[in-house]
Amino acid sequence: MNKRLHYVIDGDDFTSAGQASGDVKKVLKTLGVPSEIVRKASIAMYEGEINMVIHADGGVIDVDIMPDRIVMALKDSGPGIPNVEEAMQAGFSTAPDTIRNLGFGAGMGLPNMKKYTDSMEIDTKVGVGTTITMTVKIV
Amino acid sequence: MKVSEIAEILNAEIVAGKELADMEINSACGSDMMSDVLAYFKDQGILLTGLVNPQVVRTAEMMDIKCIAFVRGKRPDGTLTDLAEERGIVVMLTDETMFTACGLLYSNGLTEAGRHE
Ligand SMILES: Nc1ncnc2c1ncn2[C@@H]1O[C@H](COP(=O)(O)OP(=O)(O)O)[C@@H](O)[C@H]1O
Ligand SMILES: [Mg+2]
């Protein structure tokens, strides 16, 4: 059941943010992936997708669904993360109040992404962009 | 507790997912921060919130939350209710405040959603 999905995430459209994650969730369900795994993968991707929109002006997401795992690669050309260790801490956020008023910016996104996936790698460079690769095991 | 009973307790109007009124809801969480919902709650059930934007429905969708109650008389627009309808998520509107809405459901036997550590 190998499947590859590709999404372009619009950085100016907060309303549509999460569409890609919703689509991946639908595909995973259709493929018969166990619901607890679907849930973990889609929450992690959703947090990453929201981050792309609120912190990085959009980007692209590639999802590889393999028989034994789901690999999600989120790539943006945003500002990069100067201190990954700090960004990974629960509650750390640089989001402005405008974002908090929309229900995000609690600084739980990156910790959530780590919690809900089996592995997560952050490749980031200030002024160049960020690529986050997450893997969720199916079996 | 059925969706219809919750609507009755909250004196709420159901504006999306009317056909799901018989669905059973066994837990609840109340928050205006979607980040916190995504971080801390692990059950399905009902989400009570005073935040009105389509990301509330997206959050519910990712979390397998089946029902959203907007408190304090907040009224979502058609984009939000259409999205919920499409996803099979119930949306109801109540004039109660967050505190009172949660209190009413709690005292009628609905308990907190399971929590991640
Ligand atoms: N794709 C990204 N590009 C640039 N900075 C990011 C990105 N993702 C996260 N960050 C930084 O890491 C911080 C923590 O992220 P996160 O845990 O998701 O919390 P939040 O999004 O609520 O601020 C953000 O506030 C931001 O400074
Ligand atoms: Mg975030």
Summarize the structure.
The complex is a heterodimer of chains A (139) and B (117). Chain A is of the alpha+beta class.
Please characterize this protein's 3D structure.
- The complex is a heterodimer of chains A (139) and B (117).
- Chain A has 139 residues and is α+β, with helices and mostly antiparallel strands.
- Chain A has 5 helices and 5 strands; from the N terminus they run βααββαααββ.
- Chain A has helices spanning 19-30, 35-56, 84-87, 97-100, 109-115; strands at residues 3-10, 58-65, 69-76, 119-125, 129-137.
- Chain A has a 5-stranded antiparallel β-sheet with strand order 1-2-3-5-4, with helices on one face.
- The radius of gyration of chain A is 14 Å and the shape is globular.
- The relative contact order of chain A is 0.20.
- With 117 residues, chain B is of the alpha/beta class.
- Chain B has a single domain (3-111), classed as HprK N-terminal domain-like (Udp-n-acetylmuramoylalanyl-d-glutamate--2,6- Diaminopimelate Ligase, Chain: A, domain 1).
- A 6-stranded mixed β-sheet of chain B has the order 1-5-4-3-2-6, sandwiched between helices.
- The longest helix of chain B has 10 residues, at 54-63.
- The model of chain B has no long low-confidence stretch (mean pLDDT 93).
- The A-B interface holds A 14-15, 17-18, 21-22, 25, 35, 39, 42-43, 46-47, 50, 90, 100, 102-109, 111-112, 115 and B 32-36, 38-39, 49, 51, 53-56, 58-59, 61-64, 79, 87, 116.
- Residues 47, 50-51, 109 of chain A line the site of magnesium ion.
